Amino acid sequence: MSELLSVLQRCGIAVGEIQGGALAVRSPVDGAELARLRETSPDEVNGSIAKSAAAFLKWRMVPAPVRGELVRLWGEELREARRDIGWIVSIEAGKIIEEGLGEVQEGVDICEFALGLSRQLHGKTIVSERPGHRIMEQYHPLGPVAIITAFNFPSAVFAWNAALALVCGDPVIFKPSEKAVLSGLATFRALERAIARFGDRAPDGLAQIVIGSAPLAEMLVESPSIPLVSATGSTRMGRIVGPKVASRFGKRILELGGNNAMVVTPAADLDMAVRAILFSAVGTAGQRCTSLRRLIVHRSVKAALLAKLLKAYADLRIGNPLVAGTLVGPLIDQRAFDALQHAIATAQQQGGKVLAGGQRMLAEEFPNAWYVRPAIVEMPAQTAIVREETFGPLLYVLAYDAFDEAIAIHNDVPQGLSSCIFSNDLREVETFLSAAGSDCGMANVNIGPSGAEIGGAFGGEKETGGDRESGSDAWKQYMRRTTNTINFSKELPLAQGINFS
Amino acid sequence: MSELLSVLQRCGIAVGEIQGGALAVRSPVDGAELARLRETSPDEVNGSIAKSAAAFLKWRMVPAPVRGELVRLWGEELREARRDIGWIVSIEAGKIIEEGLGEVQEGVDICEFALGLSRQLHGKTIVSERPGHRIMEQYHPLGPVAIITAFNFPSAVFAWNAALALVCGDPVIFKPSEKAVLSGLATFRALERAIARFGDRAPDGLAQIVIGSAPLAEMLVESPSIPLVSATGSTRMGRIVGPKVASRFGKRILELGGNNAMVVTPAADLDMAVRAILFSAVGTAGQRCTSLRRLIVHRSVKAALLAKLLKAYADLRIGNPLVAGTLVGPLIDQRAFDALQHAIATAQQQGGKVLAGGQRMLAEEFPNAWYVRPAIVEMPAQTAIVREETFGPLLYVLAYDAFDEAIAIHNDVPQGLSSCIFSNDLREVETFLSAAGSDCGMANVNIGPSGAEIGGAFGGEKETGGDRESGSDAWKQYMRRTTNTINFSKELPLAQGINFS
Amino acid sequence: MSELLSVLQRCGIAVGEIQGGALAVRSPVDGAELARLRETSPDEVNGSIAKSAAAFLKWRMVPAPVRGELVRLWGEELREARRDIGWIVSIEAGKIIEEGLGEVQEGVDICEFALGLSRQLHGKTIVSERPGHRIMEQYHPLGPVAIITAFNFPSAVFAWNAALALVCGDPVIFKPSEKAVLSGLATFRALERAIARFGDRAPDGLAQIVIGSAPLAEMLVESPSIPLVSATGSTRMGRIVGPKVASRFGKRILELGGNNAMVVTPAADLDMAVRAILFSAVGTAGQRCTSLRRLIVHRSVKAALLAKLLKAYADLRIGNPLVAGTLVGPLIDQRAFDALQHAIATAQQQGGKVLAGGQRMLAEEFPNAWYVRPAIVEMPAQTAIVREETFGPLLYVLAYDAFDEAIAIHNDVPQGLSSCIFSNDLREVETFLSAAGSDCGMANVNIGPSGAEIGGAFGGEKETGGDRESGSDAWKQYMRRTTNTINFSKELPLAQGINFS
Amino acid sequence: MSELLSVLQRCGIAVGEIQGGALAVRSPVDGAELARLRETSPDEVNGSIAKSAAAFLKWRMVPAPVRGELVRLWGEELREARRDIGWIVSIEAGKIIEEGLGEVQEGVDICEFALGLSRQLHGKTIVSERPGHRIMEQYHPLGPVAIITAFNFPSAVFAWNAALALVCGDPVIFKPSEKAVLSGLATFRALERAIARFGDRAPDGLAQIVIGSAPLAEMLVESPSIPLVSATGSTRMGRIVGPKVASRFGKRILELGGNNAMVVTPAADLDMAVRAILFSAVGTAGQRCTSLRRLIVHRSVKAALLAKLLKAYADLRIGNPLVAGTLVGPLIDQRAFDALQHAIATAQQQGGKVLAGGQRMLAEEFPNAWYVRPAIVEMPAQTAIVREETFGPLLYVLAYDAFDEAIAIHNDVPQGLSSCIFSNDLREVETFLSAAGSDCGMANVNIGPSGAEIGGAFGGEKETGGDRESGSDAWKQYMRRTTNTINFSKELPLAQGINFS
User: Would you call A131 and C63 a contact, using CB atoms and an 8 Å cutoff?
Assistant: First the structure.
């Protein structure tokens, strides 16, 4: 425990901060309480919103490349604190340490990407149909951005959003998941250190954090002073947040559920497929939004693939994620465990056959923690339970005969986040990537559905929300666009050749 | 009336179609009934949606440049029918004939623009951080698009949306305003003729029309088979449509109210400003979403500007919009007239002084039509009524002293569609276009807020909806994006350098 | 002959024009003289250059979308005249009629593409590091463009260049190959008709033609009034033109020789490969710049592929290209025939084995024309002659064992235009397209090297010239870019934070 | 002198390196010899080229974001060494220390910009006209890049080019000016330190330096193994390099002479103009390629402007650039001084009147250095000498009456690098930036011609060379583009609908 304190301290979190509050943070590793934090009060939230609105008026006037300098400093701070924050992520979210480090690395990466953007934020110049006129579009800062994140990426998702928002000229208010506050706080503190180094070019209130539960998030969602709400979580949450924000004409970035599948064809390299399945189905104990949940495998290679897969599953090191060599850590809490059990039972009722896993593990060692052996359930068809997202290490296996059938099964779920195919057959691969292929926001080839690079746009279609974070032109969502037509002639011609006189 | 019949016939609308139905279409020109159309039944709407979904599966497989050929043909048809459709727009929506023609020209323009897009629809290729990997993003067809339009642009807004949707691979279902069905129908028939020429590469159900009132529109808004709803209308409507579409994870393009202003500074060319005000405040009888509603003028030039403006208003030719030389036609209906009267009265209660207009005109000649003399109301401050959008030829005049004040007044309304400044002063102009300037989706210089070219993105911020139509990258909203990472190596490295083995 | 006259007349070429001149145009079909045209005199060329420079000053002021209208009209004219121009191309360049028509279709396509561009020509808006500053880049018209084309695409290459140049604001001076003047002239006349319809918005001298031989082309290459020279032809020509233009700081677009190869791997669909080889090796009698010249086939499938290929070659219909069903027309002239013979003989000296073809055909029927049976020569290695481009239907066959070897052979020639692979193996395909793969400007998969669409950029690397025509952002070469930094503040900060006071 | 040694040592340059060689480096500050370096031998140059070609084969396989990491490290090294390198630039090139530091800052900036690019390097995905086909373009590494720089930006221009080249996958060979070798070497050593930290992912020979005179540069220019030559220098040099590179089908980036002007209109803020003139005309002693050389001022404000300007010139602190407060350091050598004298004399012969400056300064204190009082020469017209670039602090003043005349004078020189206007009049400003305005690669408003930010493209038109460095899409020049069409169908349709069977 003293290790926790010293890590937190190095991350800028004082002992006093994690004691005496009402919000208990527990480690899924052993169920022990890590901290008790004070919740932000509703009045404080309102105060933060007001401060953020005031900060916006100043921050938008700071040139974007100068804003980029702040993000560069944040990247430096994250790089510096990588080990510590990664460790906190690991102990608090239950990820293995490698993944905890990888998550902080994503923060570093997005800071560098945003630094590059800070001299771009390109709009277009456009030719006009009228003499002595020109058109251009500019992207301008939008206003305060609320960032509401989930427990499973308690550091990176904040960094993804905040790095872009800050470079785009927007103050941020961060509401981390109650289940992983410390990771969020540590990431936030790194930003605060960067702001301190950046000096008085950063207005007061540029980055703020709100600690507490759903009602505080709702305040952010409903505030007309917050033009953009970025929320990561369940489809259920999105179904509430989306309409609320829409009803006040706000913008939103929703990153909701996934029901990510892999198609394995006869032309696949099965050994590579097995390794990819392993990482994406059991990594983070199946609690990534991009975790692999459905395996759609050609009947001719099903037996061979399953044999390899079951062997690999049997060898999985499950346990304390902080221990080197562990590949599968705990579920976040009992509720997650119960949901998993329920899904497995329901799947069985719907004809499924459990090929592996599902059992609770290490109950004696960790009576208050919820380790589970990753499960594989073979299904006769894509039944109702398969169409749902169960947030844990549960992999459904479905067989297909014709390639079109594989795609039909693939797309026949309400979610649309990530997907992949394993095949070395060009036609199969390109078809999977085509207009008639996967309907997900991400479609990969010979890699799992999980583990996107920050250069591409991240996000999904259908019930996943339809929005994008991270690379490509995702930054545009954090800005407002203005189309400008400038007449520098002495005439006043109308568009479309209209004569009005 | 026989002229109407023959024009309609040339536009492909048979006599039988406009008789005997329950939906009466009246001309605002004289209040006479133009047609009685049969409403589409709810069952038929459901049938159309199903047909559209089926058409999508085929249309998405037609190569985009071939889809472009359909849009090219539509452009030809619109070019051919320009006079006729323009005339129908004029008689049905009450616009002067020049504007009716201009509206059809916008349809021609967007078809040509979409034709160009049909060989672009560019995603990005992106470098990967992993050896033997590459990333690309592709844009794919999205699915059926519902296009719900308003009476004031009964032809062009459909064309804007449908031309892009069709090129992007999406079937369309068009629901024109009940108040301007014929214009919509005529534009739609031109598309049907293009489809006929295009031949069997176009699937059945590629373009469909739904005739009737709000409940039919609601069916489209709520259908999970329609991933994109493009709706033009009031903020009130948007406040309903937005959340409904969001609750089913659909996408939407909302083009809602505007409260568009012009800032006139001491450095303005006042004569140009007057001409611009005239077109944008009284054109279409003030019933454009981009109509000028607020004039924010520097105190030093207010008197001079108003003198010129009142003179110009006094000379306005108001009357039958089909008659050459008319500049101001009728309001769409009595409700519009009443709303205008109400706004003027309220403005007066709030301290306003009517400088001109507001009176009903030509009541004897056209007892069932609602002509009005365009009004100018000087306000002591931007009161509540000024912050509302009144859809008619009512221009509020507000004075300012310092330039910052002008911008503050400008932005202090809930709507955010269009805006402009008249000034030859570079600093003023650039400030108006900057991050600290106009907060509208469109900000023009030395032209009115009205009359955008199709090359730029059209749309507004805040309660205007936040979405974009027409040029720039507006087409992206009609497609789904897929981020593809392709591993063509024999290794399986993870992003962010994670080691999982 | 009377058919020729009437076709020419329909194309706007009068009888008087094709008689009595010094420049004889012969048909490769039968060697008969088609026309005798008057050569443009050097004085006239100088006059044209001066006129073009004057036209530029006006044309650059015509808004780009209006310039787009001219190109739209040209596209209409080409569509109208497609049969006729296609026929002239066929009789004059010896292409089969299908290819003649396809060539005119490319003209239509590029006109439509350019029409779309006419509302884009996008530069970027860029954020500045200094407060109160903004940056943008604009693309502006460049000046007169000389277009020097070769006999083998006498219509399309002019259209490719002129459509872009005109939309970009540049007048054009066209110098068609002496060997195919009529095709160029007919295409040019279609442009003249479009200009006539376009009316007086087009300045005098906007599009001009220069008829004659190399010295006239040199005048264009050397003129300081012509900022851009687009020249298609041999590497030898490019080696002269490039330095000349560079020495006067002009820009150039060079489309020079290709030595295009196909790699056929064991994972190829051999039947598809054979069809692709056929079209790309013998189409246009091997006289496309993108014609297939080298077949690099895996040793394990070589025999099978050659068997199929030889069978297909044996069935080739060789003869009058105007006759339906003919697939291989004549060589352009005796010099081409002699060069082909020389190459075959040299190849044999270098170890090659003639598997098929090479013989003169139809010598009795057409004593003055040069038909040849397409040749296949198997080579033991890529010798010196294989590294040269021989402009005719001569296909070298080379075997490879390891895939890396195939790529090494592929790239080991000085030219870098087009290339392709036939394989259904994803790894092979992606490697071929990767940084370590084909070094050509175009690299295709499962289609031949020939027959690009106009949406992509066309052109090649290394001795092919390095420039691009047609789609993507090729238009940028026809414009000048200007980077604008606008200071609208009252301060004068320096970039990089320099303090100078 | 011991300060020099310790600064050099901190920069990684050992004492041994700067002694005993044949190449003497002198400081323009006092004419003293700073170092004697060994010249690279021709054999060594050939060896470097071969090593670079070998390094390319490996470096192109390193993923771009990993290459970005190298550039990030270089940026760190430059940031660290900023003071030292800035000091060396100052003592070696004679710039004042503020400018020396600014120059290194540009290196830092471009490294960060390139870091951002390292996850972009975007090509386009493009829709195909054929079913089952797709098109994309990729940018791939090009090969070794030679970077030949001039004395006046001995650090930044190398960084500009090398940062982009390295991220794009190209090894670099750097040939700094003989007159400023130490600055180049210090910048290069910072890169070497970054490479050392980067470790063995960097192949041997990734970055190399060649020290010596013109013949060595020529070897690089002529080598077929170097596909891109980036050369900064005089127009005279460019006239040699351009054709040489063209004759071997290489690519080039030429940044040659400028004859940069400022137009001052009656609507200008004269005080701001004076400050801008001062920095851009006398900064770096007028030895920037973007230095202001021509002042085109409206007759009505000429007297007022000149009065202010002459006063400012009279107050200029001229002297040792290392001393705080100095604004004008020495010319680089006597030749520069003589050229300046010659220009002033010629200008006088052509009617010019010397208003200020031209005299040698501090000759007693620094008998071997060439300080000069910046000169202002009023010209009756733009005579021949004004059309030439004289590389020193010589400002010609020309009067104009009508605005069109100002632009005509402005453009009537053979060079086309940078330009600016001082005016607060929107019409003047926009006209200056329009197609009919300045014909330079850079056109600024209310800032001088000098001091570009790295986000925009840097470079000029006409005899300046036509190429671009730094921001926007300048990186594309360092890569080769490949257009890929992929057929994943089982059919083989031809483009343009050609039928060949």
Answer: yes
What residue spans define the domains of chain C? 42-256+465-483, 260-445
Measure Cα distances from B96 to B84, B101, B367 in Å. Answer: 14, 9, 20
Q: Say whether B435 and A141 touch across the interface (CB within 8 A).
A: yes
Decide whether C42-256+465-483 matches C260-445 in CATH topology.
no
Which chains border B (3 or more CB–CB pairs < 8 Å)?
A, C, D
Residue indicated by tokens 């209409």: C76
Q: Is C473 on the interface with A (CB under 8 A)?
A: no
Return the residue of C nearest to D110 by Cα: C496
C332 Cα to chain B: minimum distance (Å):
33
Q: How does the average pLDDT of chain B come out, rounded? A: 96
Superfamily of domain B42-256+465-483: Aldehyde Dehydrogenase; Chain A, domain 1 (3.40.605.10)
HSE, CB side, 13 Å, CA atoms: give it for residue A27.
21
Find the helix or strand (DSSP H, E) in which B37 lies: strand B33-37
Active site residues of C: 255
Greatest CA separation found in chain C?
88
pLDDT above 70 covers a percentage of chain D that reads 100
What single letter denotes the amino acid at residue A480?
Answer: R
DSSP letter string over A351-407?
T-EEEE---EE-TTT-TTS-EE--EEEE-SS--HHHHS---SSEEEEEEESSHHHHH
Decide if B276 contacts A490 (C-beta within 8 A): no
- Non-local CB neighbours of A9 within 8 Å, separated by 6+ positions: A15
Distance CA B228, CA B251 (A): 5
Which residues of chain B does C117 touch, with a Cβ-Cβ cutoff of 8 Å?
Answer: 116
Question: A260-445: what fold?
Answer: Aldehyde Dehydrogenase; Chain A, domain 2 (3.40.309)
**CA max distance for chain D:** 88
Tell how far CA D178 is from the center of its chain: 16
pTM of the shown model: 0.97
Res A493: pLDDT: 83
How open is the CA angle C494-D468-D286, to the nearest 5 degrees? Answer: 45
What residue ranges in C104-202 does DSSP mark as E strands?
A: 123-126, 133-141, 145-148, 172-175
CB-CB contact of B292 with B331 (8 Å): no
Low-confidence stretches of chain A (pLDDT < 50) are none
- In terms of Cα–Cα distance, which of B163, B244, B228, B174 is closest to B477? B228
Share of chain A above pLDDT 70, in %: 100
Residues A437 and D141 sit within 8 Å (Cβ to Cβ): no
Rounded distance, CA B154 to CA B187, Å?
A: 9
Predicted confidence at residue B501, as pLDDT, reads 73
Nearest-Cα distance to chain B for D102, in Å, is 27
Calpha distance B395→B414 (Å, rounded): 17
- Own/partner contacts of C191-197, CB < 8 Å, gap of 24 or more, are C191/C74, C191/C77, C191/C162, C192/C12, C193/C12, C193/C77, C194/C70, C194/C71, C194/C73, C194/C74, C194/C76, C194/C77, C195/C70, C197/C73
H-state helical runs in A28-155: 42-59, 64-80, 82-93, 97-117
From the list C65, C127, C133, which residue is nearest A121 (CB)? Answer: C127
Please check whether residue B101 is in contact with residue B453, taking contact to mean a CB–CB distance below 8 angstroms. no
ipTM reported for the complex, 2 dp: 0.97
pLDDT at D444 over 90: yes
Of B129, B424, B427, the CB nearest to D66: B129
Mutate to test the interface with A, among C125, C433, C473, C484 (most CBs of A within 10 A): C125
- Structural tokens at position A484: 């400008």
Strand partners, C105: none
- Say whether A424 and C423 touch across the interface (CB within 8 A): no
For residue D105, which residues of chain C lie inside 8 Å, CB to CB? 496-497
